[in-house]
Amino acid sequence: MHFSTIAAAGLLTLAAFTPGEANAQAAPYKALGTEPFWALTITPRTIRFESPNFRTPVTVATPRVIHGFAGEIYQTKRIKVNIIHKRCSDGMSDRTYPDTVQVSVDGRAYSGCGGAPAVAVPDSVVDGNWRVQTVAGRSVVRGTTVTVNFERGRVSGNTGCNSFNGRFTLDRGRLDAGPLATTKRACMGRAQNAQERDVLALLGERLSVSRNRAGRLVLTGARGRTLVLAPEPGRR
Q1: SS3 at position 153
Q2: How many whole angstroms separate alpha carbon 96 and alpha carbon 134?
Q3: Is residue 213 a contact partner of residue 86, using CB atoms and an 8 Å limit?
Q4: What is the pLDDT of residues 94-141, one digit of tens each?
Q5: Could you give all domains of the chain from N- to C-terminal order, each with its CATH number?
Q6: How far is residue 131's CA from residue 233's CA, in Å, rounded to a whole number?
């Protein structure tokens, strides 16, 4: 990916934010992608990139942003970011975001989506019984059923191997569950063990709650990994 080419083709006039304008943007800008999962956070001071391709997050000082008709460009020695104001689907949870984002880190290219998801859900929407369709972008292990139930501040379910339960809170679209108590049954096979580990790890994070275009409930962790839930038949 050649960002200089993108910038020349996509932007007709360029301008740099002044330091005062950058400081006025208090809320961090977030972007994410899949295959592999990655997460980007831009604040007035730093740009932070996380991916399994790097043992530790890559963090650089935020440069002056190049601002033009197509979007914004950030250019540093290690990280280059091109934000294009064009609607984007993350390809896994089927949510829609306002921006298409291209990132290059140490010469390696990534693509994904940025900005706040287009659809939010009211707090009461999580209540009821759900069947998990995907865990961190992967379909549930064949022959297993992963379930989650939210009711009156309590969460329970099954990882496809062990049952779990605990408490949860939901505030302005952010869900916090745990600590969770689980049964101790031995899982059959490596895939079931990995699935259980991912389910419990995700439920242990602070999760954003949204709906995708198919009406599924999407719980998203800090690194962009998701649990996608479909309502059980007869869910209230």
Answers
A1: coil
A2: 18
A3: no
A4: 577 889 999 999 999 999 999 877 554 454 678 889 999 999 889 999
A5: 3-114 (no CATH), 123-231 (2.40.128.270)
A6: 10
